[in-house]
Design goal:
The protein is an alpha+beta fold. The protein contains two helices and 21 strands.
């Protein structure tokens, strides 16, 4: 694989903690001027800090957050062979390198800290691999916590003849010679130069290339947030944690993390606790069970059943019996009225029938009498005729 070949620190703004007074030719910018042919103080190609300080720090500002692969450091040699007899080795020992998005190294990533080199083994120049992103590359050394390992100088120094930072000069690129785009789900288009690995992922994704969605009941940045009480134990949305098909009973909100308010329970918190809970309106947010028992006269987990024992029960039964008797009396009264009405109607019908019967009988009797008279008159007439003839 072709590593990034561009020194993205070249001629970028640089600064140091303790500049050497009245020696601008030894300023912080000498470490990023691209010159390292003369490694002596007189060559004016090296940054030199002031004497007699217990800490030293130098930084270069890349002017934007960039993908970094490795850092090259050339330390001062005085143009003398670099070995255990070179006096500058003692000043190089114990150094650290940080990459940060601010000027404070504590906000950044520690790329390297020397804890094991000796004057005989410390390399110069040295390459430090550090796959990360950042704006500031910070060199630090200190002598504030003696006792130091053998060979360490008493004071701390910046004696950097060149610091080169290799990475991609534009965000969102990676791979061989920074010619490939970073994976789509890399946060802020930041990936490690050289291997297409995302520095971090956008919310809802994990993995070295951020192609895996959150699972296992998690969501959001780095998949560290737990889903709420989604209905039927469904997985929430991998990015925002919302429950697509509602909540389990007892919970509400788009992430189903809120418990039903006091006095409500069940699906979507639409049901109300029984008014007969001992403390009215307080019940379990899922089942509706009264938390502190029932009021007198009621029983059951939800206090919706009438008690069947005790004085209160007898009173209730008396009340219920009284109501039952009252209802029965009302029913009997209604039936009596209905029967009375029917009896009255029947009497009227019977009277009408008798009246009609009498009238029919009288008519028949009268017509019989008329026929007798008529026959008598006829007989009388016949007798008169017979008498006349004689």
């Amino acid at each position: 694989m072709l590593l990034p070949t561009e020194n993205i620190a070249l001629n970028k703004p640089a600064s140091q903690q303790h500049p050497y007074p009245d020696r601008p030719q030894w300023g912080a910018d000498r470490a990023v001027d691209g010159l390292k042919s003369n490694l002596d103080i007189l060559g004016e190609q090296c940054t030199i800090s002031a004497d007699k300080y217990l800490t030293s720090e130098w930084r270069v500002d890349l002017q934007e957050v960039l993908s970094i692969h490795h850092i090259f450091i050339q330390y001062r040699t005085g143009n003398v062979v670099w070995d255990k007899n070179n006096g500058y080795t003692s000043r190089f020992l114990g150094f650290s390198v940080y990459i940060s998005n601010t000027t404070d190294k504590k906000d950044g990533t520690l790329c390297f800290k020397d804890t094991s080199y000796t004057r005989a083994t410390i390399p110069n120049p040295t390459n430090i691999t550090c796959f990360t992103h950042g704006r500031y590359v910070i060199y630090h050394n200190n002598r504030t916590q003696p006792e130091f390992p053998p060979g360490y100088s008493m004071n701390a120094y910046n004696e950097l003849c060149e610091v080169e930072v290799y990475g991609c000069p534009e965000l969102g690129y990676d791979g061989e010679n920074c010619s490939s785009l970073c994976p789509e789900k890399c946060k802020d288009d930041q990936c490690y130069a050289g291997n297409k690995t995302c520095l971090s992922c956008v919310a809802g994704y994990i993995g070295s290339q951020c192609i895996e969605e959150c699972d296992g009941g998690t969501f959001g940045a780095r998949c560290i947030n737990m889903c709420g009480k989604c209905a039927q134990n469904e997985h929430c949305h991998h990015i925002n944690g919302s429950c697509m098909n509602g909540c389990d009973p007892g919970f509400y909100g788009h992430q189903c993390k809120k418990i039903c308010e006091t006095g409500k329970y069940g699906i979507d918190c639409q049901q109300r606790c029984s008014a007969f809970c001992h403390t009215s309106g307080i019940c379990h947010h899922i089942t509706g069970a009264c938390k502190d028992g029932c009021k007198s006269g009621w029983k059951g987990t939800e206090c919706l059943e009438v008690q069947d024992y005790g004085k209160t029960s007898t009173t209730l039964y008396v009340v219920i019996a009284s109501l039952s008797v009252l209802v029965i009396n009302n029913v009997v009264l209604v039936l009596y009225v209905i029967l009375l009405c029917k009896h009255s109607k029947n009497q009227k019908k019977n009277k009408a029938y008798e009246q009609n019967k009498k009238e029919n009988m009288f008519t028949q009797d009268t017509s019989g009498y008329d026929s007798v008279i008529s026959r008598a008159e006829e007989n009388y007439q016949e007798l008169a005729i017979v008498t006349a003839d004689r």
